[in-house]
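Run log, item B.
One chain of 574 residues. Sequence copied directly from the ordering sheet:
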Amino acid sequence: MDDTLPDDAWKDSFDKLLSPRPQLRELNIIKKNVRVSFNIDSSVENSNPDILSVSECSMPKANLLNVGDRFNIKRKSGSSISTPCEKRLSSNLFYCALSPITSMKLDGIQIDVNQKVSDIGKEQPRAIKHVCFEINGLDDCESDDPKLKSRHSRQIPKEARKRSRSSLVLQPGKWRKSLHTWRRTFQTDGESISLPKVSSPRKRTTKENSSPIRISGRKSAYLNKTLESNEPISYEKEVLRYCAQRRPLRFDTAYAAAKMLNTCKIGEGVYGEVFKYIPKISSESNVVLKVIPIEGSELVNGEVQKTFEQILPEIIISQELSNLRVNPTNSTSGFVNIYNVALVKGKYPQHLLKLWEEYDEKKESENDHPEMFTDRQLFIVLELNFAGSDMSTFTFLNAEQSYYALQQVIVTLAVGEEAFEFEHRDLHWGNILVEETKTKQIDYKLNGKEMSLATKGVRVTIIDYTLSRVTVGECCHYNDLSTDEELFAASGDYQYDIYRLMRDELKNNWSAYAPKTNVMWLSYVVSKLIDGVVYKNTNSRAHKTHMTKLKDFYKTVLTFKSAIECANYIYSLK
């Protein structure tokens, strides 16, 4: 029997501290895995044993604040302890999803060693907003804001939450169409979703058990009551006058396939369909065709069709703003250029039906098939200049480019204010089109003052005046939203806060002129340029410099009273 003592039997506890490093690691005295801190001056996150690998997380963007289960985060176990980090960054750069300063839970990010540094700043997929409607919020609300969840839970009875669905995935900015599609198709136990009822402007409908929704409450009012005529206005004749027609044209003749080259469907909305084509005999190229059914008794996409009275103000606004490009006192080319307006009648042309079906096969249209229309159906067709893709899908080179795009939006709104007391009232990033241009600068006139802005390679166009307000002559055209409860019920994005801020500013009097609403939307646009849009190059000095400018402007924009004040301020910085 060997009575020999182990070699370390003579060691006391202090001597054991001199043992080799592997044993110290077992005691967790030497850290096995020390990660670079989010904040170089703080290592609070190193005390969290969870390590998150970038390659295992499908983050849409590195600076998003909302992370969690929806990113399918995979955890790794670790036994790291807090250790100060040297103030030297290795070549393995990292992205931080959350600020360590907040009280939110922190998850470390460890870069995959096989990942190239150059790949880190590349374009990331955009996040899809989950928007909740306070009217029917649920326990299983998909919003990532815990405060929002708790607020919904307190407001909505438990039984009602079980019977309703709380959130839906919306297209960028355009939430009404997605809301309506969701409302039409989603039912629980055969019961329709309970949402606030909005009075319809017209009661004619051939569908029973339908609940038509009004998306437009267009009204016109004379500022000088003495100018009002006692004679009834023929809105049909007024529409024909603006179309330069005596009677409706035949749809299949006015827009025959032989007259349209390279035609395709490029979009849709609750209002109708959008096509793009090149006219066979015209100097214009890439014309956008916006087809809107009117005056029919059938519901279209679940909506009551607009009347002549309702469509007339939209035609007037579109034409007046388009004509500002040749105005001698207040001029801008920032509003969409309208080539022609036509009133047509009859069934959809066969070639457009085929294009609709091709679009449906590729992208699954949410609209009703236009073969539903009869020979008696009337349409307003707007022929518009093609002005690129909307801001939500456009990829900017860097923040310098987006900063100068913002200037174009500001000055265009300012010109509209000065010329027509214009308020857009729905300027989300889906209503701002951006296209590349070789033009070096764009000229404007604001109350006779000439202004020139650098383009930095992009041109911006403002579209969609459905909710807009203008004063033309002595008549104010506006959309009365005072009874449209759904518009003010959504939450989950800054866009939906703007609607409520407008209502407060106007005191729910939508005929009033309040240019502050344009400033509110500018605040929203800046927020999207900071956190929403995608940039190709985020490492350049120009990007960082102008991103700082965007953030500085965001802090002060709401102090302005109008877009005119914003424009004068921005132009003074040149």
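Observations after the first pass:
- The CA atoms of residues 215 and 303 lie 8 Å apart.
- The mean pLDDT is 75.
Flagged for discussion on Thursday.
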